[in-house]
Amino acid sequence: MTSFDLPPKLEIPKPAIIRLAEHSLLQPGAFRAVGPADRRAIIADLLRAKRLTLAEARRALLFVPVVGWKIAEAGWTLVGSIGASVTSDGTNVSLPGSPVEGDIVLVGQGCDANNIVAPNTSGYTQIASSGGGSSPGYELHFKIMGPTPDSVVNLDDGNGTTQANAVVIQIWRGVDQTTPLDGVTPTTATGSSGLPNAPSIMPTSDGALVFAFGVLDDDDDITIAAPSGYSNLQARVSGSGGGGATTMLASKVLPIAQAENPGAFSGTDNDEWFACSFCLRLA
Which domain range does residue 46 map to? Predict the structure, then answer.
């Protein structure tokens, strides 16, 4: 049975919280239906069943969105996360964890050179691409695993060892199989100094998993930290000196669909950069 942390000054007894969490409208499959009217219905149901007192119910009206947050987080599972430096064309990079059918694989690539390309492995869909015409070069793709999941992804380098391809890969479980990107066009931004600053994006469904992706030109920054409020950071440096690059990826669950501005990664270096925000829909 799931236990939930009590928010400050709410003072609802733990048994009441668990009764809220067990309500049918708060189960993962029904999460997106939970709105203000549903919250009132939940409280009314529990009152009629004498599972909450009136005082508990009044406080619980404030608590239900917090329960919803926990349910949304429980719907997502990070299967695996790795970084890799690819220094030669046709390199097989092993996928982290043990992906199964329905899992989504995210592959982000960054390089000082502008000749970086999409994964060679078939079935990947583009989220963002520099198209070989910018510095830094970047590629961001996803693939939903089929009945026989991949064990590797085949990638090319940027431009040899000096301008190697900095790769980040994450695999997530819990994504909607029909509309994985939540029906939302990813947003992008660039800058000439500082660190990647992911722009605002507007998910269309509750429980979305929002990602901030970035590539920093020229610099190998091993001190990268995720934007405020974001976690599951995966960062990778590659190349050397003026030919280096740093690729980064972090995420955050949004329990309610609303505009989200991830903001900037932090670190010690600064240079030209690219950033992208995108979101995944909860199944």
Answer: 14-74
Highest mean pLDDT among 19-28, 143-152, 160-169, 216-225 belongs to 143-152
Q: Are residues 55 and 90 in the same domain?
A: no
In angstroms, the CA 243 to CA 183 distance is 36
| Tokens standing for residue 91 | 């390199």
How many domains is the chain partitioned into structurally? 2
Cβ-in-10-Å burial (0-12, 13-18, 19+) of 2 comes to exposed
Question: 156-165, 167-176, 220-229: which range is least confident on average?
Answer: 156-165
- For helices 54-74 and 14-21, the axis angle rounded to 10 degrees is 60
Residues 159 and 236 in one domain: yes
Angle formed by the axes of helices 36-48 and 14-21, nearest 10°: 120
Return the percent helix, strand and coil in the chain, to nearest 5: 20, 35, 45
Q: What is the mean pLDDT of the chain?
A: 80
pLDDT at 117: 87
89 and 131 share a domain? Answer: yes
- In this structure, the answer to whether residues 90 and 144 fall within a common structural domain is yes
Residues of 65-100 as b/e, b for ≥16 C-beta within 10 angstroms?
ebbbbbbbebbbebbbbbbbbbbeeebebebbbebe
Q: How far is the CA of 86 from the CAs of 98, 106, 161, in angstroms?
A: 22, 16, 8
Which residues are CB-neighbours of 97 under 8 A, at least 6 positions away?
79, 80, 171
Q: Determine the Cα–Cα distance for residues 52 and 55; give it in Å rounded to an integer.
A: 8
In the three-class reduction of DSSP (H, G, I as helix; E, B as strand; rest coil), residue 96 is classed as coil
Put simply, whether the predicted model's pTM sits higher than 0.85 gets the answer no
d(CA 14, CA 38): 21
